[in-house]
């Protein structure tokens, strides 16, 4: 376990997709899901459920379904965005490193150290605010992983094989498959957290009116985020 | 700032509704929203926006709208659930203390030290997974507050005055008002985090199949959660 403080952990946790391909001990998984389930939910209903996918039996079958879905989703995204990668670019640019990390992520998907399917047990019709009872718990997964020396990321690429996963794992119809969360010990170095300037994200008393105190600390790195520009 | 570790912070942060009624310094609000906006979002789009409500001008007007909505929502909930409270119960039972804390929360609502409206800038039609791009940031608000010695909680009771808030604060139609987050220095003592047993929330390789490692650490406190039973 690291002794990173709460505030530093919040400020520096970023999505990690390159993992050392070794199993994640059950004792650590236990601490991660325990921390996750301490997150709040409406009226403390706790509609969140986490399905861990082992490396054997149905877990291995689910990993294979997901691996195929992730590889085809990534290939489709590259086609949609017109992305091609040159060898030079791999080493030299942020985009090249991002593409390389994604290729490694989907290629090794089945061997991801730990995979959690975050599920939401529905108790009322779809509403834009319902995620307040599942995604705080998912964020706690990423943060607890960080506290234990791991890293992880969220993905929605299971949607393509949702029906197959439901059948394989016996997930009822009134349960949403909210996120796939992958976890493992980070491999290599990772860049800083990059966001828009705080003044674009924080307002006071009126939409798009930034207060004087919405300033980034020195050394903050920025990005507009969103899907990269298409190539001409 | 406290030196609580990341893991301990995740395990012990709970909803706080009783605040010392003193202003929350802007420097602390800045650190809280900075930490919030480090949370992940799909393709790093950062569709989250936080509107801080000051104690003056339109901020005070918004607080008044919310205070009325919170008081009437609480009164309605008490009627719906058939809750009445005896003086004895106030001191002696968990339910009594919960009812008392809620009464204090809504009575003092306008004087809440800090209030953030968490907003989601829509970029595609409503989908059950979209909250993955706003509620992790909201969870970071609660956790960062805890790191700085504050506490907070989530509520959806702004829904009742959403139209009035939109008009007052100039919030566009394509933006969802996801959560009201209240923050302040905790007043008095607060109980432990209570959840269902871990084995009810965590499965392996199949729905409702709990792995041997899904065990709660010693001393864990439990509750089924959900709306309390109605009185006969």
Descriptive account of the structure:
The structure is a homodimer of 232-residue chains. With 232 residues, the first copy, chain A, is an alpha+beta fold. The first copy, chain A, folds into 2 domains: 6-191, 3-Layer(aba) Sandwich (NADH Oxidase), CATH 3.40.109; 195-226, no CATH class. Helix content of chain A is 36%, strand content 17%. Chain A has 7 helices and 8 strands. In chain A, strands 1, 2, 3, 4 and 5 form a 5-stranded antiparallel sheet that branches. Chain A has a two-stranded parallel sheet with strand order 6-8. The model of chain A has no long low-confidence stretch (mean pLDDT 93). At the A-B interface, helix 1, helix 2, strand 2, helix 3 and helix 6 of A face helix 1, helix 2, strand 2, helix 3 and helix 6 of B.
Oligomer: homodimer
Most strands sheet of chain A = 5 strands, antiparallel
Number of helices of chain A: 7
What is the count of β-strands of chain A? 8
Helix fraction bin of chain A? 25-40%
Question: What is the CATH class of the largest domain in chain A?
Answer: Alpha Beta
Shape of chain A: globular
Q: Say what the CATH topology of the largest domain in chain A is.
A: NADH Oxidase
Q: Can you give the mean pLDDT of chain A?
A: 93
Compute the number of structural domains of chain A.
Answer: 2
Biggest chain-to-chain interface with counts: A-B, 99 and 99 residues
CATH superfamily of the largest domain in chain A, called what?
NADH Oxidase
Strand composition percent of chain A: 15-25%
* Element order of chain A: H for helix, E for strand: HEHEHHHEHEHEEEE
Distance between the termini of chain A: 47 Å
CATH architecture of the largest domain in chain A: 3-Layer(aba) Sandwich
